[in-house]
Design a protein that fits this description.
By secondary structure, the chain is an all-alpha fold. It has a single domain, classed as Winged helix-like DNA-binding domain superfamily/Winged helix DNA-binding domain (Arc Repressor Mutant, subunit A). It is built from four helices and no strands. The two termini are 19 Å apart. The mean pLDDT is 89.
């Protein structure tokens, strides 16, 4: 049985772009539109990454 991971470890295991977007959104309080503007990508792409990352971490937490 493996030991439980911390949120930081879960974030570190994500692909770099996903980790960057989730960090900006959840830790820095940036909106999807602000992140999209910063990265010059469509807002819907940022929303998709946020949703995907949130789902992955929730699954790892057993939620």
């Amino acid at each position: 049985m493996s030991s439980p991971q911390t949120i930081a470890e879960m974030l570190a295991a994500l692909p770099e772009e996903e980790r960057f977007i989730l960090t900006l959104h959840y830790l820095k309080g940036k909106s999807a539109l602000e992140i999209a503007t910063l990265l010059s990508v469509p807002e819907r792409s940022v929303v998709a990454v946020i949703d995907s990352g949130k789902r992955r971490i929730a699954e790892q937490l057993g939620l």
